Amino acid sequence: MNTEYLFNFGEPFICTAIHNGHTVSSLVNDNLDISEDTRFREEDPETGYFTDIAKNKIICHQSRFEFDLNRSREKAVYIHPKDAWGLNVRREHPNDEQIVKSLRGYDLFYRRVKLLYNEMIETFGNFFVYDIHSYNHHRRGPNSPFDDSDKNPEIVLGTSNMDKKWLPLVDQIQSTMKEYNFFGRSIDVRQNVRFPGGYFSRWTHDTFPGQVCVIAIEFKKIFMDEWTGELYPEIIKELKKVLATTKPVIIDYLMKEV
Asked: Looking at the predicted structure, is the pLDDT value of residue 258 above 70?
C-alpha cells in the first residue's frame, strides 16, 4: 500500500491526507470505466501539502478509486454508480481477487494507524488530528458558473461525530481562522456545511473515545482549476498559513486537558 506514515512523536498534533492519492494498481486500473482526468477531479489532490504544518503526518498516495479510507469497510470499494456520485466506475463487476486485494490495503492502513495512535496516547494522553480533504465547487463544467458561495464555504470544519468536550476547541479554531488576513478579508469558514465528517474521523473517535479530537476539514478547491488541474500557488500557500495559525491554539488547549 502506497502510504507515508511520518511520525516523530514530538507534539500531540497530526495531519492526514487520506484522499491525496492518484495511484491505482494495474488490477484495478484495467477495469476502470472512467477517464484519468475524471478520477483526478474526484480525488483530493495537493491535500498532502497542508500536512507540512505537522511533525506527525499520514499521506495516502493510493487513489480512493482503489479503496476509500473514509468509508466503512463494507463500502470502501466503489462498484456501482451510486457508490461514486453517479459515475460508471467499473467496466465489469470486480471479481473476488480485485476486492480482496483492495480490502487488504484498507485493512493494512487501519491496522498501522491504530498502532501509531496508541503510541500517541501513550506519549501524550490525548492528541489532535486534522483529517484534510478538498471539495469541488465548479461541477457544472469549465465554462459554467461556480456553485453558490453561500452554500459552499471556503473551509468546512466537520465535527458531527466528536465528543462534545471538544466543541469549545472547534470554536476557537474557527475564530482563529476568521482572524487571519486572507487577501485583505476574513476567510469563509463554517462548521458542518455539506461535510460533517466521514468514517475515518468517526472510527478514530469510537476507537479512542475522549482521547482524540479529529476535525474533518474540507478546503474548497479555490487553490486550483478543477478542470485543468492547474494549481494556484499563492492561494494554496495562504490557505496553509490559515491552517498553521490554529496549531498553537490546539496544542495549548490539549496541554490544559492533560
From this structure: no
Q: What is the C-alpha separation between 210 and 166, in angstroms, rounded?
A: 9
Residue 99 phi, psi dihedral angles, 5° rounding? -65, -45
pLDDT at 125: 95
The pLDDT score that the predictor gives to residue 138 is 94
**How many other C-beta atoms lie within 10 A of the C-beta of residue 225?**
12
Number of residues that make up the chain: 258
Beginning with the edge strand found earlier in the chain, give each strand of the sheet holding 56-60 in spatial order: 3-6, 56-60, 13-17, 127-135, 212-220, 155-158, 189-191
- CA quadruple 8, 214, 17, 66: dihedral positive or negative? positive
Name the residue among 106, 34, 98, 113 with its Cα closest to residue 68. 106
How high does pLDDT run on average in the chain?
95
User: How much is the pLDDT for 27?
Assistant: 85
CA dist 221 and 242 (Å) reads 15
Q: Which amino acid is at 166?
A: W
- Sketch the domain layout of the chain as residue ranges: 3-257
pLDDT digits (tens, 9 = 90+) for 169-183: 999 999 999 999 999
pLDDT of 1: 61
Select the CATH number that applies to the domain covering 3-257 from these four: 3.30.565.10, 3.40.630.40, 3.40.720.10, 3.30.470.20.
Answer: 3.40.630.40
Record the cell numbers describing residue 233, joined without a space: 500557488
For every residue of 90-110, DSSP letters joined together read BSS---HHHHHHHHHHHHHHH
